[in-house]
Design goal:
348 residues; alpha/beta; Alpha-Beta Plaits; TIM Barrel; 8-stranded parallel barrel; elongated; binds phosphoenolpyruvate; binds manganese (II) ion
Length: 348
Amino acid sequence: MVIVIKPGTQQQHMDDIVRLLESKGLKVHLSVGESRTIIGVIGDKSVLSGVNIGLLPGVEKIVPITENYKLASKAFRPEGSVVKVGGRSVGGREFAMIAGPCAVESREQIFEAARIARAGGAQFLRGGAYKPRTSPYAFQGLEKEGLKLLREAASEYGLLTVSELVSESLIDEAAAYLDVIQIGARNAQNFRLLKETGRSGIPVLLKRGIAETIDEWLASAEYIMSEGNYNIILCERGIRTFETATRNTLDISAIAVVKEKSHLPLIIDPSHAAGKAAYIPSLSRAAVAAGADGLMIEVHPNPKAALSDASQQLGEEEFLSLCRDIAKFAAASGREYDLFEGNGGGKC
Ligand code: PEP
Ligand code: MN
């Protein structure tokens, strides 16, 4: 359940409520919004039999939550969450762009990708270092060296880093290189990894599992949040359906559903959904129009030579043209998105 606190309630009354809940062995999570404080209560509520929480000073109402997720539910933070990463934020007015290659392949490649990402107005540089490939014989990523190169390239161009970790054992050594930990579609229900990522406190980009329902996906987010890490950005990347024309089916409806059910920011990854560069501009425009908070786009200085996902990565011209479109669609949707093109870096 969540307990909605009346505006203007004295701190002492808040503390009394929290103390009472904790004394009963319940876990308490606070959401302090601009206009309201909400207390998320986790645990077996039967310990509260005989206690009428609704009558305690400061309590406005109690909202029972029957879903598998509580902290990820809209009721916990009705005004919506803005995830702060470095000096940037995801979920606010600024439209987020995460761009970069499928995998970090070399110093030259990731620095070039960073330059292109920056020119297009991206705030984040992505690049896989631990690649979850279908075949064990396919390129597996540069691992720690890849993370180092990603960080160096991002710093050079004033970008923040996002990269996937495939095991909880990597979190400690990766922490220095990552602003955002990506949990990939294949690990979206790796509960141990989710919990440890939650304990790390590092912002998380949580992809939707390949065959995960929206409820299951939000429950995955709950695993992270229940460990005290509320900095989660959801990422829809297409789900597996009977359709084979695209690599996965981009579930645009997920934007409407997630915005109704959860307060977490949501971005769209049309690259892994479509699997084909030509489809990405159209899916990206749809995502902005439907209310997504950002995009993740695979960008490579020479897509044809990419060591993974060659068919879906955009080259420089394609990416910049996409970004010009996104700036217009973002403005029409009440968002801000600025390109940073040209050698001098003038905004347009
Ligand atoms: C990726 O973004 O590098 C990736 C592997 O995506 P997904 O987990 O969505 O397949
Ligand atoms: Mn990829």
